[in-house]
# Entry
Amino acid sequence: MDKSAVLQRKDSTGLFSRVHALFSILEKLPQQISEEELEGLFKVLPADSANSMRSLLKPAIQQASMPFLQMLSAALNDTATAKEQGKKVVLAPFNFPPEIIHAFDNLAPITTEVLTTLGVVSLEGQGERYWEYAMGLGLPDHLCSANTIDLGSMLSGIDFEPDAIISGCVGSCDVNSKTHEFVSLLLALPQIALEKPPDNTERGFKFFKNNYLKMIRQLEELAGEGLKLENLRAVAEKVNRCTELYHDLWELKKQVPCPVPGIFSLFVCATRFSMWGRDEGIKTLEACMEVSRQNLESADYGSREERARVLWIYLSYYYDLVKFYDWMEERRISNMGDALQWAFPEPLDLTSRETILDGMIRSAWNNVMTRQMGAASMSQRWIEDIVYIIREWGVNGTIYCGHHSCKQTWSVFSITRNEVLKRTGVPTLGLQGDSWIRSMTPMSVIQEEVEQFVNNVINKSGRRRRPKIKDTV
Ligand code: SF4
# Structure
């Protein structure tokens, strides 16, 4: 493909341009919007966008959703204005922690799966046209929609292009890393690979650390600047505040009924994937804490029945927030979120450049998906994490959403389900579907399956099943 021809064909119908245009309006909304004003807003938005905003802007969580939308808008603005500010845009998958990019003056990070999810959540027609474009190119339909939707838009030649791509899934997801590689080859974009070996010993970590340090040198070359200690420290301090808030929210989830609204798991992972180490990220997490604390202290909220505490053991569904998060809340099923929040971040040691970098490298090594699917044994690491979280939060039912492209989780699903049941007594529901494509399995079918699972399995004796105390790990 001739790159100059691609650049000439750019217009406003690409996923990024459309999402950015919508968020440029949303960021101007006042911090508090009355129900009457909301109804007015929903009338002027396209139906799919209005549906998501109905869930995101509902009064009970508005205090957190406004900073969340503003955070996402800031991330999109950074990308949109990068060129005029003399910055380069670095695209990376969700398992790559963005804080190292935030430490460069001349770089701006943007995350493929965050863009896909924003497209699916906020655009009329969701991400369908970009997925279909990718399929029209002859790409196989077992690719992961999480990245293919946004990358399909990029391949169509009508969307923004980054200046470089970090392929952060080498060693943890072949589908993801190959899709990013394909785009970088086709659009002639530099690709920086960060490989994680399936060797979780210190030897494996040393190999990963060398790859990460090599990546920093490549980023320095791209940015035309060295990584400055003062920038690194400033970002690291904010990373530590984000980490603190992440653990505070984690602790609150132990309460019954769970005071942390289910949709906040989406807020937490979007923050982790895009604005970890930025003021906007801190504001979002602080607001999530504030709403959750208010719920905890509210007698009305505290008297709610909790029929089940359900954990999504890998992904969940992101194409209908009302019929997913809000429906579960109405049915008094606490949605404890999915594996995209299992980053287990640790505070960074701010003593020196070396200690800060060492902590950031360990965060990347231990980040979501890399930690589980890039482990020496996928099933073992995944099972251990699920068992740990079931016990931490008192979960009494888990669900595997069956994201259709995710061959690696599918390949160990049976053993995972059996082992989780054996070690904790907690059952797992296996579903089929695509987390980002609504036409694969209608949400009404998913609702029905979840309802049956809660009624007939979790609550079959009329009482919630508690996890067994005995640890057989
Ligand atoms: S969801 Fe599965 S297929 Fe998609 S990027 Fe993650 S591990 Fe890969």
